[in-house]
Amino acid sequence: MGETDEQLMLAYAGGDAGAFERLYAKHKGPLFRYVLRSVKARGEAEELYQDIWMKVIEARARYVARAKFTTWLYTVAHNRLVDHWRARGLTVVASTDDEDSGVPEPAAAPSAEPHRVSEARETLERLSAALAALPLAQREAFLLHHEGELTVAEIAAATGSNEEAAKSRLRYAMNKLREAIGDD
Amino acid sequence: MTDPGDEKLSRRYRELARDEPPAHADAAILAAARENRGQTPESARDDSRVTGVRPRWMGPVSIAAVLVLGIGVSLRMQMEQPGVETSAPSSSATEYPMPAEPAPVEEVPKARDQAGMRQDAAPAPRPKLAAPAAKPEVPAGAKRESPAGATPQVRDEVKQLAKRKDATAPQARRRDAEADVLAEPQVVIEQPPAPPPATMRAAPAQITAPAAAPAPAPQAGVSAGGVAQAPLRAKREGFADRAATESRRIAAVADPDPNRELERIALLREAGRHAEADRALEEFRRRHSEFRIPDAVWERVKPR
CA-CA distance, B26 to B20, in Å (whole number)? Predict the structure, then answer.
């Protein structure tokens, strides 16, 4: 029906500003959330988010539709985040990122509160907290999957890892988050 | 990723706040996209894909081209009209007075024959233009000197000039060698050496050039001006060679291989040239936004 992302990006590279606007409208929310939940601080996230799109704009002439646009977009975003983390002295990918280090225990058991609304809110808060507490690589795998809708192979491509590692990170992330919301 | 637990988790995740970018970010990004849209020449796009030449290198290459052109034009002007360059007359102008009148043109072949000078195909300066009589910087007293009286002095000066050139040649060679050793190619903007004294350039046409002149004399008369132009031509060729070398170096650095670029940045870091390394890294990130820098390499190139 409509144009694919790849066609839109190529159209933009050819001078069609409207193509970029359509592309941007489609991806702005997921990409912003991916960045926001990766760095937590909103101010930093906004800066990084703009920077990523600027890189996309600058790289338009080099864009070649060899892979999905989203894979390319999140690769650019991932690299920008890596630079950001490195600048803060953080290790981007732990060698043993399947380990549980640094992940806080989820709030005990499912809430026994009587009101379902507050229970739901609490669940979401726990999910949010657990997501924020995930190791970088696991959180990124989860966000790429849920926000960018990338497959395991695409996550591997975007983060420069192999499929096994990407699959493992995603599985660990989801297990921890399920535990956090009591869906274990 | 398709079991019910995953579905439930995904549903819960979607219930989290649906954060959106702020309106000002949207506006800035879309404005940038519109602004840059017109700056996407298809030719540049194709060039970058086919040859790997990035706009980044256009600046240095342009500078090198401008330098070559500028030097070439100024040397050409100097050849055609000695004294047109802006250099101030040196103190030696008073020591080596010039003749009052230009030498007759018909005397030139004779003088050349006497000197046994070689001729080459280089463009010859027009004799009248080469004549120095109209030069305002020559002292009035000097103009009253006869050409015959000036001849031995000018000849001495030519010899001195040749000696000076010989003396400076090792320095120039050393500079070239140092430039070659440097791993980092740079656009070296050198001040051209000072031109020979005005009196030498403007010597009368009938004065014979020494046989030891370092380059063939121009065809139109073996004037001292022609003698002075031989080293000038050599210099011009030297400049052209140097500019060509710089262009080749720049082209060599315009390498599309990100690993080689990173290696260059790492070398800059090792050399303590952090400001250049920072700029290069920033530029690298701009050009290779989709390239992931390996951790080991990052340790070598990261900002200090």
Answer: 10
Decide if A14 and B20 are in contact by the 8 Å CB cutoff. Answer: no
Q: Which residue has the tokens 């030069």?
A: B135
Length of chain B: 304
Backbone angles phi, psi at B34, to 5 degrees: -70, -40
Instruction: Using a pLDDT cut of 70, give the percent of chain B over it.
Output: 35
- Whether the CB of B289 is below 8 Å from some CB of chain A: the reply is yes
Q: CA-to-CA distance for B157 and A169, rounded, in angstroms? A: 82
For the segment B20-66, what is each residue's pLDDT rounded down to a tens digit? 999 999 999 999 998 887 664 444 444 443 333 455 667 778 888 88
Nearest CA to CA, how far is A1 from chain B (Å)?
A: 25
More confident residue, A55 or A102: A55
Subunit contact A33:B18, Cβ cutoff 8 A: yes
- Do the beta carbons of residue B209 and residue B217 sit within 8 Å? yes
**Please, what's the b/e burial string for B246-266 (b: 16 or more CB within 10 A of its CB; e: otherwise)?**
bbebbbebbeeebeebbbbbb
Q: Report the residue count for chain A.
A: 184
ipTM of the complex: 0.80
CA distance from start to end of chain A: 40
Cα distances (angstroms) measured from residue B210 to each of B20, B114, B259, B273: 83, 11, 56, 49
Find tokens 């031995």 and name the residue: B152
Strand-pairing partners, residue B217, are: B119
